[in-house]
Amino acid sequence: MKKNTSLFRKKTVDQILNDANSREHGGLARILGVRDLVSLGIAAIVGAGIFSTIGLASYNGGPAVSLLFIFTAIACVFTALSYAQFASTVPVSGSAYTYAYVAFGELFAWIIGWALILEYAVSNMVVAISWSEYFTSMLKGFGIVLPGWLTMNPVAASESFQKLQSEGVAALTTYEKMAALAFETAPRLGDIPIIFNLPAGLVTLLVTALVYVGIRESRTASNIMVILKVGVVLLVIFAGAFYVKPENWSPFAPNGMKGVLSGVAAVFFAFIGFDSISTTAEECKDPQRDMPKAMIYCLIICTVLYVLITLVLTGMVNYKELKVSDPLAFVFQKNGLDFMAGVISVSSVIAITSALLVYQLGQPRIWMTMSRDGLLWKKFAKIHPKYQTPSFATIVTGLVVGIPALFFKMDFFVDLTSVGTFFAFILVCGGVLYLDHTGISERSKFRVPYVNGNFLVGFGLLAAIAGIIFYGQNVIVEWQGLSVGEIFEHKLLTIIFWITWITLSVMSFKYNFSLLPVMGILTNLYLMTELGASNWFIFVIWLAIGLVIYFSYGYKKSKLAQGE
């Protein structure tokens, strides 16, 4: 057959379904129902976010951070509806990567797949390191103290020791004192201290082994851990409600909207788990019916839990005290309920394990799908004959996550995970507009509810501009004080956001675009503007590496390029 040399060559839905069902790849076991999918979604969403990053978000935004959870959830609902439509149209593993292949072509599919690899890997590194902190803390509660050099990353230990030498012990925080001590007491190989985060590496190894053995075992473990962690969250909400002091909710937004929005990365990190549901499409009994339901159910459940728990936390103690890594246990300790704090510490170890499990489940399936399309080496598509899991891809995932978790700092990764995710979410929402425009939506068993955006998108733009003119004087003053260079350095994404809104207004008027996917694009893009420039710099480097791999291997080996 004739080779296709276009960078934007697309796969049809039938091509993707036929490839997924091809015998040469082996089949995945179809055992997941709606309840299992909701459980996997909750396992990913109610994980490290609610047990750790929620404290930092509350510290920055005060009680009003509960509104940020609602705003972020709304953005996720628009996106989840778009994911649900794609999942009912193309019910295979691969998530946003597969959807981009249908809507935008191979180059965009590769970029999204490469971004999702970063998202899942970085998310799991954060979760593994967070798990290690909780696990070490839990062991201390039982009187077991691991040596510092076995629970610390070498970068933090070295930096803390240097700070001790230059500024003295009085300048160090409690954590930095522990890190400096770990550096001093660590065994040495010549002049090099041996320091690594053993618990983070071990939990990654154990979870990878569970995912390797099978989806059935992973499902059972996930369901048990989800029941436990939702029980703990409900316990915190109902028990904590009796200790809420309404005066702690005043002022509601002490640092204004700027303080609230500074928690975007932490809050959004808590929500990205619903994306992982779509990676298990080929292990669903009825993906076209069950996936849309599961995505919406788990988003509603998790949003309600997040809003309630944020209000309880900020009501039990002053928001200024919540800058801790274990906020749920902390608020009960602060109120003299040490037993409750102990229960939460033990439970949080299990809860974070379930989040790690879901992310480790998702990434190998994206690699497997990319390999099927010829964009990655054939080995990644290999299915284990006994366990019916992508065996090689699962092992590589364990190494990619486990090795950095042994040696790197968590704060290096936290914000970075959101960049690739926002990028994927925007393309999925845009992909639904393509499905509608080309008529492919006619074969979708679930469709995003259609609201004609003909005039509404443009009216929304005019209303936003009017709001800034009449009520956003501080924003106008801030922009007036910036030079052209500073605007491009700090406000480039904001400029892109407004240009995108203008473009979508024109296209909505011309093509009668559906309003909800357009809202998904705009809300995700707006949240992106709140992320730091350094995250984007690292993401661009990652993207450049990916493009080198694509043009040196995937572009030539792609099945579409071979005309297969």
Automatic annotation (TrEMBL):
Keywords: Membrane, Transmembrane, Transmembrane helix, Transport
GO MF annotation list: amino acid transmembrane transporter activity
Main location: membrane
Keyword flag S-adenosyl-L-methionine: no
Subcellular location: Membrane
Residue ranges annotated for the Cationic amino acid transporter C-terminal domain, each copy included: 515-558
Cellular component terms per the entry's GO annotation: membrane
Membrane topology summary: Multi-pass membrane protein
Spans through the membrane: 37-59, 65-84, 194-214, 226-244, 256-274, 294-319, 339-362, 412-435, 455-472, 492-513, 533-553
One Pfam family in the UniProt entry: AA_permease_2
Protein name per UniProt: Amino acid permease
Organism field: Dyadobacter psychrotolerans
